UniProtKB/TrEMBL annotation:
InterPro entries: DUF7793. This is DUF7793 domain-containing protein. Residues 13-119 form the DUF7793 domain. It comes from Saprospira grandis (strain Lewin). Gene3D superfamilies: yp_829618.1 like domains.
């Protein structure tokens, strides 16, 4: 059975080789929660996977949690998927103010997000 996690922040599973899908829960994420979530993901998938992060249900993320995630991610990159005005605002705030140190892009279409991830994986192979 492929690795998966389910904690207070999100449910994650290996979608395909090098791509982890995570579906965030309707919570407000604080620093302790994001640290625990990153540790769970590290144990399940290791470093360097690409994440399809669905934040559609996410209520909010506290600033210290966003700061920590931007600088301590185990991801090679992330496509942030949203379908609501609130989650789109959360995603845009994260990208604007936290400037993750890995490729990150906001999407409203799941297939376009996956296509972008696959393109990024191929580009990384050429480097």
């Amino acid at each position: 059975m492929p690795p998966q996690t389910d904690n207070e922040v999100a449910r994650t599973f290996l979608l395909e080789e090098q791509i982890v899908e995570e579906v965030y829960k309707p919570v407000t994420i604080d620093l302790a929660m994001i640290k625990s979530h990153i540790e769970d993901s590290l144990q399940a998938y290791g470093r360097g996977c690409w994440y399809l992060s669905d934040i559609s249900l996410l209520k909010s993320t506290k600033r210290e949690a966003r700061d920590y995630l931007a600088q301590n991610s185990i991801a090679a990159g992330a496509a942030i998927l949203t379908n609501s005005p609130i989650s789109k605002m959360v995603g845009n705030l994260f990208l604007k103010f936290n400037k993750p140190d890995f490729p990150t892009k906001l999407f409203t279409d799941r297939e376009k997000a996956l296509l972008w991830i696959r393109e990024q994986i191929e580009l990384a192979k050429k480097v």
